[in-house]
Amino acid sequence: MSNYTVIQRDDAADVMAGSGYPGEMRMLTGALENEQIAITWRQMPSGAGGKGSYGHSHKTQEEILYVISGRVQAKFDDEVMELGPGHVVRIAPQCVRSVHNDGPEDAEILLISRRIDDLRADVDTVPDFWPE
């Protein structure tokens, strides 16, 4: 492996493509060949996200959520808040979370965490976490 890797965002597959969910979500970790850090970029058009559906937590993976642009609504455990450009949130593994964009403009967020090999095994979902 090289001492560095350079990619374009579009080099990472859009894991939301064909799913019926709006926006894009590109897990940059694989394209970058990261060994330690997981990085996910998400573009959320108005009306996108988890409000009215499930929330999730992790068994071991702490996350950092960084709002690049736009405004998003987030629910962490029982607290609902609005986050705008430049807001950064550390989310403990056990915290149930959901992020939604019902604002008038697109939003971009970056999620950063420790890389784990089996993400599905680390995630616990909570149905009806943020009812409309």
Please, could you describe this protein's structure?
By secondary structure, the chain is mainly beta. 7% of the residues lie in helices and 42% in strands. The chain contains two helices and eleven strands. The protein has a five-stranded antiparallel sheet. Strands 3-9-6-7 form a four-stranded antiparallel sheet, with no helix packed on it. The model has no long low-confidence stretch (mean pLDDT 91).
Quaternary structure type: single chain
Mean pLDDT: 91
Reported for the largest beta sheet, the result is: 5 strands, antiparallel
| N-to-C CA distance | 47 Å
Summing up helix and strand content along with how strands pair, one would put the structural category as mainly beta
Order of SSEs, N→C? Answer: EHEEEEEEEEEHE
Q: List unreliable stretches of 5+ residues.
A: none
Helix content: under 10%
Strand order of the largest sheet: 1-2-10-5-8
Rg from C-alpha positions?
A: 15 Å
Question: How many β-strand runs?
Answer: 11
Overall morphology:
globular
- In terms of DSSP E residues, the strand content is 35-45%
Helix run count: 2
Structure characteristics:
132 residues, mainly beta, five-stranded antiparallel sheet, 2 helices, 11 strands, globular
Describe the structure in brief.
The protein has 132 residues and is mainly beta. It has helices at 28-32, 119-122, and strands at 24-27, 37-44, 48-49, 55-58, 63-69, 72-76, 79-83, 88-91, 97-101, 107-114, 123-126.
Give the SSE layout.
Blueprint: E1 24-27, H1 28-32, E2 37-44, E3 48-49, E4 55-58, E5 63-69, E6 72-76, E7 79-83, E8 88-91, E9 97-101, E10 107-114, H2 119-122, E11 123-126
Antiparallel strand pairs: 1-2, 2-10, 3-9, 4-11, 5-8, 5-10, 6-7, 6-9
